[in-house]
């Protein structure tokens, strides 16, 4: 399968690791890989070239990968960055995702070389989808009538699931876009609670991008006193229902799927 990216900037001081990455793409001659051995050299090449993706090692001779990442986010914010880490560097990978990396790969993992092209392809496509979602999110926030229509759909879902504590829609960043309203006209789940729930799903996305879980369209997240039922909405985020009980997956997801299709139809006009 042809890659969705053509030019990779690999910032890595190890000649061996750089060779391994180059070998990983030996069957894809259309993919060009430029190699930089220091953070400063990598930043210079990034500004001089036109790269679709940056593969960034953490341990560099002149600065850390996180320091390089911060400068990439500032100077070339549209360029996706994937952190390369080894076993024992989970904190580094997590911090990189928080700062702005689209994902990470573990170079100590079995079959790293064989799986690297597919992993980068998935992360790159996920990054493009998130950019589209941000554009749509901005349009939703500037169109009150659209948000009100989304809230009406959530209200109907709330009536179909009377045991639910609340329903809402999050952006790809986990921020609430629309919340259901109670019968009294207020909101039956507050924005802060929705934001916390959205952050949980966002963190699952970060992990899932590296564990093949991000493709899961629907799911249930269970916690001590209840559960979240979620359904991905393309180019928007997630439709979420909060229960103070164990979710009945089949029955609950059927209603959530119907509402998600209605939300998808509403946002098609702003895509």
Please characterize this protein's 3D structure:
The structure is a single chain. The two termini are 27 Å apart. The protein has 2 domains: 7-133, Response regulator (Rossmann fold); 143-270, Dynein light chain 2a, cytoplasmic (Beta-Lactamase, 2-Layer Sandwich), CATH 3.30.450.30. The protein has helices spanning 15-24, 39-48, 65-75, 90-99, 112-141, 144-160, 191-211, 249-267, and strands at residues 7-11, 32-36, 53-57, 81-85, 103-106, 164-171, 176-179, 218-223, 226-233, 237-243. It is α/β, with parallel strands linked by helices. The radius of gyration is 21 Å and the shape is elongated. A 5-stranded parallel β-sheet has the order 2-1-3-4-5, with helices on both faces. The chain has a 5-stranded antiparallel β-sheet with strand order 7-6-10-9-8. Strand 8 and strand 9 (226-233) form a beta hairpin. 47% of the residues lie in helices and 21% in strands. Helix 1 (15-24) packs across helix 5.
Strand order in the largest sheet: 2-1-3-4-5
**CATH level 1 name of the largest domain:** Alpha Beta
**Helix-strand sequence:** EHEHEHEHEHHEEHEEEH
Total helical segments: 8
Spans of at least 5 consecutive residues with low confidence: 207-214
CATH fold-level name of the largest domain: Beta-Lactamase
Using the 3D structure, state the CATH architecture of the largest domain.
Answer: 2-Layer Sandwich
Oligomer: single chain
Strand residue content: 15-25%
**What class do helices, strands and sheet pairing give?**
alpha/beta
* Biggest beta sheet attributes: 5 strands, parallel
Number of domains: 2
Tell me, briefly, the overall form.
elongated
How many E-type strands?
10
Spell out the CATH superfamily of the largest domain: Dynein light chain 2a, cytoplasmic
Roughly how many Å is the radius of gyration? 21 Å
Mean pLDDT: 83
Distance between the termini: 27 Å
Kindly state the percentage of residues in helix. 40-55%
